[in-house]
Amino acid sequence: MASKLLRAVVLGPPGSGKGTMCEKIARSFGLQHLSSGQFLRESLGGGGGECPRGSPLRDCGADGFISITAAFLPLMTAPFCCGARTGFPRTLGQAEALDRICELDLVISLNIPFETLKDRLSARWVHPASGRVYNMDFNPPHVQGIDDLTGEPLVQREDDKPEAVAARLRKYKDAAKPVIELYKSRGILHSFSGTETNKIWPYVYTLLSSKIPPILSDEEN
């Protein structure tokens, strides 16, 4: 674990690479990471029975169908608050609830062009039981339509289908705007723009290195 306490949140629309970014942060800085998507899958019996603390981060995309605030907030208090979180808070109400138990050190906002997000989401297929995500353009499975580890079928979620993507991104934008403005007004918001997570990562690494000592170099991640 890192020697200094750090509370960070990674915000971004569906398909922006929040999960990948948090995996890199956790490895490089020895932080624990919490994912609302992972927590939801496990709470609903689809996460393989593993504890959400320290498990791979995936974007569940369960926008709106269940309230996670009351269940997820207790996981974000000490001693598990040294880390990065993805997918939470999604709304101003969740941000205000988080304020009552935890003061954030910084918020990372990923700004990805709409067309890039649309292409990523439309090409995304998942393994339902684990939440493993594949992208047919840059991270395809070894066998088309089949999970690499289990050999089970992959599915495309309804909200990743092209006709649903635009509405999903608009919904995120409307809900996230007041959250982003809140953290911007506090001077803890750091925005990063680009189309590839690997190109954004060095800038995020530099920012975090100014807050907490890394345990891996940028090149080692």
From TrEMBL:
One of its GO terms (molecular function) is AMP kinase activity. CDD domains: ADK (cd01428). Gene3D superfamilies: P-loop containing nucleotide triphosphate hydrolases. Residues 124-159 form the Adenylate kinase active site lid domain. It comes from the Eukaryota. Keywords: Kinase, Nucleotide-binding, Transferase. This is KAD4 kinase. It comes from Circaetus pectoralis (black-chested snake-eagle). The lineage of its organism: Eukaryota, Metazoa, Chordata, Craniata, Vertebrata.
